[in-house]
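Thread: "does anyone have the structure for this chain?"

Original post by V.I.:
We have the sequence but no experimental structure in hand. Need at least a predicted one for the grant figures.
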Amino acid sequence: MSKVNMLIVDFETRSRVDLLTAGSYLYAQDGSTQVICCSFMFSDPEDEREWLIYGNMPHELCSVVAEHVKNGGLVAAANAAFDQAIWEYVAVGDNDYPEVPEDQWYCILAQCRVNALPASLDKATRALNSDHRKDHKGSALIRQLCIPDKTGQFNRDPRLIEQMGDYCLDDTRAAKDVVNSCRLLSPSEHRDWLLNEQINRRGIRIDRPLAQAATQYATAETVEIGQELAVLTNYEITKHTQNLRIKKWVLARVSDEVEALTVVYKEGVRKNSLAKDIRATILDMADAEEIKVPDAVYNVIMALDEGNKSSVSKFKRMLERADPDTDRVQGAFVYAGASTLRYTSRGLQLHNFKRDCFNVDTTQNYRAMMLSGHKIKDDVMGTLGKLLRPALIPAEGHTFVVGDWSSVENRGLPYLSDSDGGREKLARFVEQDNDPTAPDMYTIAATDAGFDDRQIGKVIELSLGYLGANGAFVSMARNYGVYLPEYEVTRIVKTWRIQNAWAVDFGNELSRAAIAAVKHAGSAFRAGRVEYTFVPELMGGTLLCCICDEIWISYPQARVQTVETEYGHQQELTALKANWTPSPDDKEWPRFKLWRGLLSENVTQAFCAGLLRHSITKLEDIVLHCHDELALECKTPDAEQRAKELQHVMETPPPWAVGLPLKAEPKIMTRYGK
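Reply from O.Q.:
Generated one for you, tokens below.
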């Protein structure tokens, strides 16, 4: 998208509804939600007009906005989904704002995300060192003006409202700086964002009675876990959420060997952690008698593990965000939520739902049992976790049609390498797709490594493709219940790299091309189907990665420096890390190393995310997308035909991925499953 003059808008609102809890859609539709003030300005740096309004839009501004919209101009906002909802549900009805077609909205935070900037106006302006920043006094003003007091009344102090107006203008100026400091959304990116917002507005229906029952069971189980912790720790700990107390209590009772397993480094600082993966390591090693853990400590860690299972919060969020009239949750998906342009989720956090779930019959049995008040005998939290996916249901008379690509990243990586070895691997996939009796890729990987356990093959394929070593294998193996001695892991890694030399070569080619691009600004350097170019004047020097002439990844403030390693002097490529936040006193945004394995992972994930976005453009009635999965909600009699349509779309590569073998066999579901 070339530079265009967009109209930037920012609303400041008040409501008796909690925005963070309910989400933008329920917040905007609530009768108590009102506009305090609103600011407007154009994105053109030469256009210095600014408007700040309270109440009705003045006739002069109304004419300006109407003319801009009539001429096809875009209306931009930091979080456009929120401002669009306020415009449509509050402002238009109350203040005669001109209507804005859906396809003329533009999201500035989506622009930040495709530029690999922090997805926050405050953080983005800090990372860009913009002239205008968010005023941190705004947080206090929001608490004072936007949230009702205990009696349900709002503070209407004119002095504070005037300060809120100044804050609103500052936000819009900061948004204008961001719009003009980085690459705009391309037409296809803007289209993809719009399509995702259509899916967000459509929403997905929840089984409200099941979610309510699950919340009650989870709450009761949490109380029991607290009581168990109190007994185990002589009442030093009474809740599983008392993380600091639990960590202190555990570390005081374990050996140095166990304490070493809890050590992590965050931005170079040594810390102790009892995060999920660390807890799993301690429990697994204790079970295997590789370390000694006191029984009380073991049981405390087990209780912590149970209490931290996410089913409690997810069922609660379902109920908080579901429209009371339709039981549909809107706004669950974030376009380009990851720097590789993959979708992420918010609110429900669907991308974190466990794939391990109950089938329809088992779900119905548990549902009936829970609604009648019967006790779940074993592993309450684990049982509730397996009910998360089935708690999403289609409307009456409708059915889900769900398609999931088979090993799409394992196909995408060799395709992008455009190498003989990569083509040989793709040929194996073609054989596997065409012959159901042929061994699948996980079985082949296990056999190549000298095992007959498909689970080991699965760990090999999932952990080593991006050039991970022993640590990557062990971490992935733990998720699949695979435990091998260190010497076997070392042998597997070496064997895989020899048998898949094309992947190692491709990683090296990506690294060389990226470094060469930064050192030779303006010139393009290729590796397989990937091309890197460095643009010095963009965001302090940005490395742009173009995949198959269609998909772009940005690495802002990219730099190459020579570092001393155990292998001698080596060149190291680093860039700004969007999801790390510096302390207020830091002058530079945190950075991360772009090593060959990460570059391989980035281009593959971006490529596969592009496949998903392409499929979305070809389909209607999408209510859900999760990683490499798409779900349609259609009338039940149409399900078989829609399944054929979905399979055709998902198995037909886009023009920029001709020759890529894809496999997807959709399922028809009365509840969301696996």
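V.I.: this helps a lot. Residues 208-232 form the longest helix (25 residues).
O.Q.: and The chain is about 45% helix and 15% strand.
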